[in-house]
Each structure stands twice: as structure tokens, then as C-alpha cells.
Amino acid sequence: MSEAQSKVPAGQALPRALAAWVPFHYGWIVLACLCCAGFARQGLAVATLSIFVEPLTREFGWSRTALSGAVSLGGLLAALVSPLIGPLLDRRGSRLVLCLAILVNTAALLLLSLTPSLLVFYLLFCIARMNWAGPFDLGIYGALNNWFLARRTMASSIATFAQVLGLVVLPLIAQFAISHDGWRAGWIALGAVTLIVGFVPVWLLLVRRPEDMGLQPDAAASAVPQPGATSPAEPAFSRRQAMRTPAFWLLMLYTVTVYPVQAGVSLHQASHMVHRGLDAVTAALIVSSFSFMSMLATIACGFLPRRWPIRFPLALTGLLAAAGTLLMPSIGSAADGYLAAGLFGFGIGGVLTLLPVAWADYFGRTNYGAIRGMALSAQILAQATGPLLSGVLYDLTGDYTVSLQCFAALSALSIFAALAAKQPRIVNGS
User: Fold this and answer.
1) Which end of the chain, N or C, is less surrounded by CB atoms within 10 Å?
2) Residue 167 Cα distances to 8, 83, 143, 189, angstroms
3) H helices then E strands: how many in the chain?
4) 106 is a domain residue
């Protein structure tokens, strides 16, 4: 056993033994753990909550606005804590952050089955939703970017695909449990999946970074291991250094222009289709095609050549989102709806996959949590403004045309922000 391996934290004997036995880079096992965490994360997604809206309102008489408020408040809490979690992630690693987040969410989901009042529902769901938006995002992509350099885009596409898959499967699990034993059983089922699928592999197999095991990221996996070494071409910005670069603020601008579009259009697209004269079933199928195209986009991003500057694919995702949004006000048939939703879904799938990669490529692994934590706060707040803007403009004008035009303009601005966000000058970690 090497000196570097002897310094692996307690409880990591299994990863050490597994790394010595498997014929491939241990980062792929880490990625599998992150996929499990990302899949289990979706128990608190808006799509999953939507399964509980009808039974909860029927039993307690709560309004839809009251239930939606729990999502917004949880997002606000995440925006407040993300900058604090980032430095913890950099010091202690994703294993601690993700395990705590999974255990808290498991407890919250199980306790939600005992919900007696709206106040208790808010307390539990807001805490869990805060984890969903903050620690999970930072933990998953923090570990991914630590282990992958050459195949970072492919790894991100796989991790994002697993999360989209969870977004498809977990609402079905919740609905199956509700159909058989009521809404309380639905929360219990989600809690069980979160614990078994999410916690167990992360606790047993996740390692903070390859250097902790005497390894290197995948870019140098074939070279002779040099414990503690990083790729010579890899940037290592501190948060303060990153915030002094134009690239930081341009990526931030990209974030706050594209995420209101993602949230605002996604939430109201079914209602818009119906308002344009399509029946509810067709509208639901079109929304499903949006999700399907997002999944295809996550796969497609994995095949992007790493030599391409990531700002160009980011600009393309903004262009696709803008094109889809511009087509939506003129939808007059199912074919129009599928085209608009397809373009929009492919663009948003690309955003979800590529933006975490861009932050790591530009500013490095060393302080990824601290830097990304700042951006994540802006992202969460931007997502909260999208549905609000769409709802307010609908109430004022009677349709979604004006809001969609605003979202198209924001998407267009994201294109220019991405193109202008050139790679900053590399700063060494010394």
C-alpha cells in the first residue's frame, strides 16, 4: 500500500480495494454513485410534488398557491445557503455533503407521510427542497468535476441523464403507491428510494477526489500516479480571483438570463398549449416530448469534442431555447407544438448538462464549490422569477404571448453572454 493510499479517510477501505481490482478508472464508479444520488434527488422535484397536489388539496383543502409557495420558499433557502455549502464542499468533499443531504431528505420524506397541517408541510418540504436545489447540485457536480477532466462533458451528460430519468420514474413510483395505499404511502415510497438508491452507494464508494487514493483525474489516468498532483493545464482560481474575471460575470449573466426561461416556460407550457386550442391530452404529449428532447440533448452533449470551446455549445443552447420560445405564441396545431417544445427541450437539456462543466473548465476543481455556490444562488433566484413573470403577465394580458416574447429576448441575451465568456487566464493553485 502506498503512502497516499494509507491516508485515505477512515471508512474508505472498500473504495481502495475496489480501485485495485477493477480494470478501469475509479472515476467511473464515482460517476455511478453520483448517478444514483441524482436519480434519488428527484423525490423533491416539482414534477413529483405535482402527483401529491390533488390528494393533499382534497384532504386538507389547501390551495394550489399554498403548495407552490413551499417550492419557492425552499428555493429561497437554497439560494441563501449555497454560498456557505460551497467552501465546505471544497474542504470535506462531496461524500459528506451528499450523505447529509440524502439523510435529511429521507427523514423529511418519511415525516411528510405524517403531515397534519400546512405549517408542518412547509417546514419539512422547504428543508428538503433546500437540499434538492443546493447541496445535491454542488455535491454531484463537485465530485464529478474532481474526477473528470478529459471526459468531463461526457460524465456530466451521464449524470444529468440519470437525474432526468429520476424525474420520469419517481413520480410514477409515487403515483403507484398513492393509488394503492394513499398519499401517505407515496411519501414513504419516495423516502425509501432516496435512502436505498441514494445513500448506500454514496456512503460506501464515493471518494472526495482522485488524489486521496493516489490517483489522478481521468485526463492523466494512464500516466504514472503522482499523489497530490493536478493537470498542469488545469486552472485553480480562488473565489476572489474568479470574481475578478469577466468570464465569471458573463457566465453569471448567462445563468440569470437562461434559467428564468427554463422555469417560466416549463411550468406554463401545458396551459399555453390548451390556451392555443389544443386538447389536454395532446398538450400533455407535447410536454412529454419536451422532456424526451431534453434527455436526447444530455446524451448528445457527451459526444461534443473537448477541444471545442464550451462557450460555443452554450450559445447554441441559448439559440435553440430562443427559437422554441419564439415559435410558441404562433402554435396552431400539434405539429407546431411538437416543433417548439422539441427545440426548447433540446436547448434546456444542453444548458443543464453544459453549464456545470463550464464553471469547472474555466475556474478549476480546487475551489469549485465556493465559486459554483455563488452562481447557484443566482441560478435558483432566477428560476424563481420565471414562473412569477409568466403568471403576472398572463393575469395582465390574458395570454402567454408577452411573457414568451420576454423569455425569447432573455434567451437571445444568453447567446451573446455565452459567446463573450472567453476562457480566463489560468491561475495556478500555488
Assistant:
1) C
2) 34, 26, 21, 15
3) 18, 0
4) yes
- The reply to whether 138 and 245 lie within a common domain is no
Lookup: cell for 133 = 436545489
| pLDDT given at position 219 | 63
Report which DSSP code applies to 364.
Answer: B
Query: What's the grid cell of residue 411?
Result: 434567451
Is residue 14 a part of any domain in this protein?
no
Residue where one domain finishes, among candidates 207, 224, 253: 207
Cα–Cα dist 10/236, whole Å:
27
Q: Is residue 33 part of a domain?
A: yes
* Cell numbers found for residue 320: 435553440
Tell me what pLDDT residue 307 has: 86
CATH number at residue 82: 1.20.1250.20
Q: Residue 44, Cβ neighbours under 10 Å: how many?
A: 26
Packing angle, helices 246-275 and 334-363, rounded to 10: 160
Q: How far apart are CA 341 and CA 276, in angstroms?
A: 14
CA distance 42 to 32: 16
What pLDDT sits at residue 428? 59
**Amino acid letter, 78:** A
Do residues 302 and 383 both lie within one domain?
yes
Question: What Rg do the C-alpha atoms of the chain give, in angstroms?
Answer: 21
Q: Rounded to 5 degrees, what angle do the CA atoms 99, 105, 109 make?
A: 145
On whether both 59 and 136 belong to a single domain, the answer is yes
* DSSP letter string, 232-271: TT--B--HHHHHTSHHHHHHHHHHHHHHHHHHHHHHHHHH
For 199, half-sphere exposure in the C-beta direction (CA atoms, 13 angstrom radius) is 16
State whether residue 222 is helix, strand or coil.
coil
Q: What backbone phi and psi angles, to 5 degrees, belong to 398?
A: 90, -5
Kindly state whether residues 306 and 402 are assigned to the same domain: yes
Residue 103's domain spans which residues? 25-207
Q: Is 108 exposed, middle or buried (0-12, 13-18, 19+ CB in 10 A)?
A: buried
pLDDT of residue 232: 46
Residues in the chain predicted with pLDDT less than 50, given as ranges, are 1-8, 221-232, 429-430
Report d(CA 389, CA 403) in Å as an integer. Answer: 7
Q: 247 and 200, same structural domain? A: no
